Amino acid sequence: MITLNDILVLLPEFYLVTVACLLLLLDAFMKPEQRHWLHWISIVVLLAAAYFVVAGQPDVTVTAFGGMFIRDQVSEILKVFALLCTVLVLVYARPYLRERKQFIGEFYTLMIFAVIGVMLLVSAGNLIMIYLGLELLTLSSYALVALNRDSSLSSEAAIKYFVLGALSSGMLLYGMSMVYGATGSLDLAQLHTVATQSAMPNLLVFGLIFMLVGIAFKLGAAPFHMWIPDVYQGASTPVTTFIASTSKLAAFGMAWRLLETGLGGLSQHWQPMLAAVAVLSMAIGNLVAIVQSNLKRMLAYSTISHMGYLLMGLVNAGPEGYSSAMFYAISYALMSTVSFGVILALARAGFECEEISDLKGLNQRSPWFAALMALALFSLAGVPPLFGFYAKYLVLQAAIDAHMLWLAIVGAVFAIIGLYYYLHVVKVMYFDKPEEGGADQPQADASLRVVLSINALALLVLGVYWGPLLGWCRHSFGLG
Amino acid sequence: MFTHLLSLLIWLPIVGAVPVLLAGSARPNLARWLALLFMVLTFVASLFLLPQYDAAQGGMQLVESHLWIASLNVHYGLAVDGISVALILLTTFVGILVVVGAWEVIQNKPHQYMAAMLALEGVMIGVFCATDALLFYVFFEAMLIPMFILIGVWGGPRRVYATLKFFIYTFLGSVFMLIALLYLYHRAGTFDLHTLAALPLTFTEQMWIFFAFLLAFAIKVPMVPVHTWLPDAHVEAPTGGSVVLAAVMLKVGTYGMLRFILPIVPDAGEHYAWLVIALSLVAVVYIGYVALVQEDMKKLVAYSSVAHMGFVTLGIFIAFLLARGLGDVDTARLGMQGAMVQMISHGFVSGAMFTCIGVMYDRLHTRQIKDYGGLINVMPWFGFFYVLFAMANCGLPGTSGFVGEFMVILASFKANPWIAFFAAFTLIIGAAYTLWLVKRVLWGEIHNPHVAEMKDINGRETFVLLAFAALTVALGIWPEPLIHLMDSSVTQVVQQLAIHKI
């Protein structure tokens, strides 16, 4: 029985679905030269959705549709940042898409549907809901990657993404079915209570392993990271930005829902597995990134290593660890929007600005954008006083608090190794001489310049003033 | 008005970097004057520390503490004792000279150079004030970014290699310090240094924390065998970068030892004091010999820096032997005091030496000793200063170099005459490499025709060298005010390291 309350709890999601359908119609009747309206409307719509999420934020956790949907503070925070990151992506994407004749309505509607998927995923209270949210997100993402259909690289990336994504969804579903078999429930809250006293503990753990594979795949953690470099490189840069920011927030939300809300009682089983995945991700991500010459590919491997750090927070398996992992996910999303945003700003017709060598001598041609990129890179490397340092510091602390000092030391060692390739890009921008055909003074529009600057400076400001965000994250997990 | 003096000192130069940067490459002179203005303002503000800080009373003063991250109990905590005050004054003083020294020399993007210097200065002052370990760490690491840019953009031919090595080396040491700090936080629930000093720790814990701290600070000092980044960084850095690096940044390492190793892990410090003392003696003797054979002037002075910083670490760790092993607190104080005076003195002398090399380099664009010779014939005034600083570098009585080394040798004699024997080697080796350098550069016939065309120092350069010279001589003849300023703080440090925590 659907009550009015159910509708009210899901209001932001319903609103977005309605608007997305309307936009689809609007686009069909729109002349191509009017399309910039679609751009602005989409941004306003997403910002309004973020407002609805914040305004309707409940003090206590509320559920709807018989526990299918949970609206709590964790999901609210993730939704707000997912919406904000998507807005950033749209702002950064416009000049890029226009120059490449890809300024089409599908891009916007697919983006909005993907965000709806994120919102459902992070609020899911039931395994079915998790799967639905995830599929809505990933199917939209496959289409977005394939959007640049004239490019063979793009099509290749889309097919790889689709095949591997389908495989991992299958794994996840298989794991879910086993968990259902062992417990007789799909509801996460019920799972939490019955998981520890299941009559078939082996089947349950077996299911857990399959679900972990699905989670690791969505995060892009090693050894399930293969798709990340190809998709990052092959997809058009705006889509990459989306996958590197909003999708990561969703993946964290999914991991937390499944592992804590659902299978929190099995933490002694998944902790060591996650720790192993974390170490592998940090190792593979940081080591392989060193030899990359393609900037997007390098950032892809950097993502893999960052997911290793994020998992370090989850390994803690307590509210402190979850809040640090969420802080990490948010900081990573904000940092990657800057790094890809600069690439988008510097790209121009016929020039993707994808190679690291394209940035040679950027400080001489465009000191401001070189500085913004440097901020993002130092932040990604975890150098204080930038935002990224505090995220690393919190996950290291979480590992130590979980009595895994060795994991923290491994993380620290790989942070040193990772430093090298970020510094290499800074070196290219600041110490090398500019080359013909390299990145030049960007001709991007004013909205991109302003928003990107704010986004990058936020890394510095949040480096000093990170207390409120941390307090918000901790509060959502019930900490003071 | 003085309640926020320390915050003012930290943030004035950092905020000042913004207008300097905005002046842009189109208005280089505006950028230079603005940079000088902010450096002078910071220096003037730092002078107010002297009347505000009550040297007789000692302890941490001018305390500022605000809750920074409430949920983690992290504070924005600042305070100074006599040692910090002396180091802050050194920093602000050198800051002015660096800006003046770079005035015409830096033609490529002077606004960015000046802004990086200002930011660096603010962050370094922050290191000397922080009383919260996380805040300290943030400042400690934030120093790297401006220095990385300074060496990489305005450095010599192998600047990229040198600056990457500098950054990664230092980062390597400090992440392990971060792990140690996180462990301490895990135990104590706070980063407040005062609380951490009182935290009881088992010997095993102390040992690991000690080595984490030692690695971080030994790389910064730098001590043998982790000193190899320093010659590269010095050789490739622009003159101003070298001056700041040698005069102030190296002191951060020894200052960190005082604030972290001594109070937090005193028992491990005592147990491994022999190690640090041995490494310090290796620095004094062996690195002295290494300096002797250098053909690059900057490298020579860089190695002599390592040797001189060896005296500082020697003075600090000899205090363990004296205060805890022999129970001789007074001599321990003497050694510690010597180390502190040596820190300040080395700041002036090494800064001045690098400035001198910069002056020569600007004229002849080479740092090879063999390209010079007979400089005194064409640059008499420069020769005067160069000889003065060379004398201070080998520790001639009457210059500041003598005071600190003498005190440390005196104290180490009480601990063990053999330590004093090896430490005293510096009197011979230091004199050898410095005098030989002077002989080959200044004296003799002019054999390079380009040297004959060199002009003597101009007014700007004279100002910088004169300022360094005045303090070098003043400190050598009358070190009393400096010793008085640091006396009660040194006593407290020595008392603290004598406490057994197990």
Automatic annotation (TrEMBL), chain B:
Keyword Amino-acid biosynthesis carried by entry: no
Keywords: Membrane, Oxidoreductase, Transmembrane, Transmembrane helix
Bilayer-spanning residue ranges: 33-50, 85-106, 113-128, 134-154, 166-186, 206-230, 242-265, 271-293, 300-323, 343-362, 374-398, 418-438, 459-478
Membrane topology qualifier: Multi-pass membrane protein
Localisation: Endomembrane system; Membrane
The keyword Transmembrane helix is assigned to this record: yes
Domain NADH:quinone oxidoreductase/Mrp antiporter transmembrane span(s) in chain numbering: 130-427
Gene Ontology MF: a single term: NADH dehydrogenase (quinone) (non-electrogenic) activity
InterPro entries, sorted: NADH_Q_OxRdtase_chainM/4, NADH_UbQ_OxRdtase, ND/Mrp_TM
Family recorded in the similarity comment: Belongs to the complex I subunit 4 family.
PANTHER family: NADH-UBIQUINONE OXIDOREDUCTASE CHAIN 4 (PTHR43507:SF1)
Stated name of the protein: NADH-quinone oxidoreductase subunit M
